[in-house]
Design brief:
This protein is α/β, with parallel strands linked by helices. The protein contains 15 helices and 8 strands. It has an 8-stranded mixed β-sheet with strand order 3-2-8-7-6-1-4-5, with helices on both faces. The relative contact order is 0.07.
Length: 416
């Protein structure tokens, strides 16, 4: 249901013409009348018109406002609020406004005559209702009577401030969690709203946000499903989409918002650096930062195998060659632990294993993370399983060891 919400105050209501989107209302003392008249010309009348009034405002202006709206064929509903500045009264008013909203409502909110704290109260109600009641904001309006010229006052559409709040929330969610579902949902809501308004071409902010959401989702999915060969490409695409947001300046006045991008942009650059070992190590760091513990173990273990493949001349993309070297790593660890002997292996295998044994500290760290990764992957269904806190502890202990040795090995790799 589409609802129009507005406040009625006790100030002066001098007649003026209001303009919005190049259209002019008839002369009126009430911006509510102007908005409804302008919407009526576009066949966009709300289903319900709800006016929040104090007892004093009702006594002074309610009948006048109602009479003007009834001329348009609109019957407004008055909802009493206290307008008192005590904390208990503020929360009571908050609840009254929230109760006027139902799940899935589409809201136009006029804050022209809101008083003191009421605009903030309205924004908080909107923010909560969008989460718990899934309402959608069509517009937030302010009749700027003070800036009138030749008897014409502009009506400002402040919806961009809601959009900015969404950008902040959604970008922050991705920066902190590595997930972009909320941004995707915002894009879908914007496109659905435009379709209902019969707008054929989405504004630039929606286009760049959709591209960014798609690329971030692809990266997130590749990380969550441990698609090691896809990370670099998807990180490059996500980085390009992020940089396009900056370049196209979907919100030129929102430059402070882009500070949120700085940290994630730096990490994406490292994940798309063109050096497979460094990209993989940064991927592990990303997983650690965003709580992807199981993925961090998998990526870290596989990065060790990949690095040894590169140093020993194996094709790290070939499943059979990769498994062959992985088996040699396991056998070398057994030799280091005294559970096996080099004499049990062919000369060519011994040569590889001797070189692997030069990195005993790395191999033992590899063994530890392999064991913990298996514990996670088998859901702890094993004897002597680890408690949940051991997994992050293990990564923090062994990642620095592994990263140091892999970077040393990287110097032996001519081309990664």
């Amino acid at each position: 249901m589409r609802k129009f919400l507005s406040f009625l105050g006790t100030g002066k209501y001098d007649p003026v013409y209001y303009s919005m989107d190049g259209k002019l209302s008839s002369e009126t003392g009430f911006v509510q009348r102007a908005l409804l008249e302008l919407w009526q010309k576009q066949n966009e009348i709300p289903d319900r018109v709800i006016i929040f009034v104090t007892d004093q405002a009702y006594k002074e202006y309610w009948e006048k406002l109602r009479a003007e709206l009834e001329v348009l064929g609109v019957t407004p509903e008055d909802v009493r609020i206290s307008g008192v500045g005590r904390e208990d009264a503020l929360w009571a008013d908050f609840g009254i406004i929230l109760d006027c909203l139902d799940k899935g409502d589409e809201i136009d909110f006029d804050i022209t005559y809101s008083f003191r704290y009421q605009p903030i109260l309205a924004m908080l109600v909107i923010h909560l209702a969008r989460v718990v009641k899934e309402i959608r904001i069509r517009g937030i309006y302010y009749g700027n009577y003070v800036e009138r010229v030749n008897g014409v006052a502009p009506i400002l559409n402040l919806t961009n401030f809601v959009d900015m709040q969404d950008w902040i929330t959604n970008v922050y969610a991705f920066v902190k969690s590595g997930r972009a579902e909320s941004l995707s949902k915002w894009v879908k809501e914007k496109k659905d709203m435009m379709a209902r308004k019969n707008q054929s071409s989405p504004p630039p902010r929606v286009i760049v946000a959709e591209r960014l959401a798609n690329k971030w989702n692809q990266l997130a999915e590749n990380l969550q499903t441990c698609r090691g060969l896809e990370i670099s490409r998807s990180a490059k695409e996500a980085l390009a989409a992020l940089q396009q947001v900056r370049e196209e300046e979907a919100y030129p006045a929102f430059n402070p918002l882009y500070a949120l991008f700085d940290g994630v942009e730096g990490r994406l650059k490292k994940m798309a650096a063109g050096d497979h070992i460094e990209e993989s190590l940064e991927t592990v760091q990303w997983c650690l930062k965003h709580g992807l513990i199981q993925q961090a173990y998998t990526f870290l273990r596989e990065t060790v195998i990949t690095t040894f493949c590169l140093t020993e001349g194996y094709d790290y993309r070939n499943k059979d060659e990769r498994e062959e070297l992985n088996e040699l790593i396991r056998d070398t660890i057994k030799v280091i632990q005294g559970r096996s002997s080099l004499d049990n292996f062919q000369e060519e295998q011994q040569n590889v294993m001797r070189r692997l044994m030069e990195h005993a500290e790395l191999l033992m760290a590899f063994q530890r993370i392999s064991d913990l990764r298996n514990d996670i992957n088998h859901a702890g269904y094993r004897e002597n399983y680890s408690k949940s806190g051991k997994f992050l502890e293990g990564l923090k202990r062994d990642y620095p060891i592994i990263a140091y040795h892999l970077r040393q090995l990287r110097q032996k790799v001519k081309q990664v």
